[in-house]
């Protein structure tokens, strides 16, 4: 894979219902290289929460678009694998600006992207469905103009913001019609919700998982196309680091991970 277009095509091909792409989210060059070195890893994805916290700012576009693009480039340049970038809301209040910024994201080498349909973290803080669909369409137009079939993982936050399942499905199908490749639906906490989304969507489903989520093997059996973990890998790393610090400062045994070669 020598071009961004090649990487985007490769990334798209990995989204297979029943044989989902598993992406362990990364946030800088060293985490990207570490995960990419694992046999079987074929693509990476960033997590905006992790990148923001690593920069000392809150999630939710705490970084400027220039800072977000620079952070994405660090990860993309660190590896040869396709990288999907969590691009939050597109760093613009309108669809036209989203299109401009997605063009810039493609220029730094992104093969895929997440695009959210919420503008805040509170209940009901969602873009109007027509506005949200226009933002997805603007991202697809930017990709077409660049000649790079970037994989748009369109995030649906309706359930996570206290909305109804039917509204989430309506939004997902509108985004697919607008040019999204995959629907990233938050709030699918049970097998029944996952199955319902797969049955009702006109395309592929992406989910986020954690310790209490539907097991990975079961998600595959249900027909999910992609599984990611958001900021949870950062929590995993920080937990191990904190545990090691506690052992070392208490003059305990050296954790064997101190010998990890990177």
TrEMBL record:
InterPro entries: ICL/PEPM (IPR039556), Pyrv/PenolPyrv_kinase-like_dom (IPR015813), Pyrv_kinase-like_dom_sf (IPR040442). Pfam families: PEP_mutase. The keyword Lyase applies. Keywords: Lyase, Pyruvate. It comes from the Bacteria. GO terms for molecular function: lyase activity. Coiled coil: none annotated. SUPFAM superfamilies: Phosphoenolpyruvate/pyruvate domain. This is Isocitrate lyase/phosphoenolpyruvate mutase family protein. It comes from Terrimesophilobacter mesophilus.
């Amino acid at each position: 894979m020598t071009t961004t277009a090649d990487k985007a095509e490769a990334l798209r091909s990995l989204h297979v219902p029943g044989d989902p792409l598993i992406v362990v989210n990364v946030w800088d060059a060293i985490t990207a290289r570490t995960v990419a070195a694992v046999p079987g890893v074929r693509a990476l994805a960033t997590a905006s929460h992790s990148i923001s916290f690593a920069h000392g700012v809150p999630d939710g576009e705490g970084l400027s678009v220039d800072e977000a693009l620079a952070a994405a480039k660090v990860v993309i340049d660190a590896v040869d694998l396709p990288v999907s970038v969590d691009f939050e809301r597109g760093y613009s209040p309108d669809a036209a600006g989203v299109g401009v910024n997605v063009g810039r994201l493609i220029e730094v080498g992104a093969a895929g992207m997440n695009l959210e349909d919420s503008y805040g973290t509170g209940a009901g803080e969602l873009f109007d469905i027509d506005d949200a669909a226009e933002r997805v369409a603007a991202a697809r137009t930017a990709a077409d103009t660049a000649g790079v079939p970037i994989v748009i993982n369109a995030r649906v936050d309706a359930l996570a913001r206290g909305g109804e399942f039917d509204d989430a499905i309506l939004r997902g199908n509108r985004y697919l019609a607008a040019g999204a490749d995959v629907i990233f639906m938050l709030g699918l906490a049970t097998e029944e919700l996952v199955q319902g989304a797969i049955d009702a969507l006109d395309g592929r489903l992406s989910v986020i998982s954690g310790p209490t989520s539907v097991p990975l093997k079961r998600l595959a059996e249900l027909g999910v196309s992609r599984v990611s973990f958001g900021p949870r890998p950062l929590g995993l790393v920080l937990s191990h680091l904190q545990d090691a610090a506690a052992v070392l400062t208490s003059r305990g045994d050296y954790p064997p991970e101190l010998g990890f070669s990177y």
